[in-house]
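[job 0412] stage=fold_complex status=start
inputs:
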Amino acid sequence: KAGVTQTPRYLIKTRGQQVTLSCSPISGHRSVSWYQQTPGQGLQFLFEYFSETQRNKGNFPGRFSGRQFSNSRSEMNVSTLELGDSALYLCASLSGGAFFGQGTRLTVV
Amino acid sequence: DAKTTQPNSMESNEEEPVHLPCNHSTISGTDYIHWYRQLPSQGPEYVIHGLTSNVNNRMASLAIAEDRKSSTLILHRATLRDAAVYYCILSNAGGTSYGKLTFGQGTILTVHP
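[job 0412] stage=fold_complex status=done
writing structure:
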């Protein structure tokens, strides 16, 4: 089985722009979670989707949003980027345990 | 969310067993104990999980205390590739927060040649 695929792997954006990150879960997995990882805050939960519905949401501002499609692929969007949004964004596909992708490294300049 | 407590760091020598402890005194009856590890510049990697009984897989063993208030991840023969941050996390498989994993600071494992 192919693992979790996140695209792109690296991204550089300017403050004020918006960005969309993509995640393809393991085939057959219907639940996808997103996390932000920074040196200062560690790994923080953003949101979880199951069958196209947001099931859980972390404590992030409304600039962070996501969605899930009928094929379980998920996207997350960050609008009006700030310097503090620079981070590694990780997606996990859930079935028993959580299986993480390699992440998207976002740098906001 | 029920909380876990782990030592900040541990050291081991290559080819020796490593026992990584985790305390979770407020665990609820439906909380599963999960372990993940994260190597530098990679996403977290699932290691093992269990509910009440000890569990073994090709990567590690999980020993769960009888009262479930603590657990130990056992790496039977540490290798240099096992050097990583190890996270112990509780996940309520039957609850609405199933997909929400709360990561603490984890234990930084250093393996010496």
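[job 0412] summary: Chain A touches chain B at residues 4, 31-33, 35, 42-45, 48, 50, 55-56, 58, 90, 92, 94, 96-103 (CB under 8 Å).
[job 0412] exit 0
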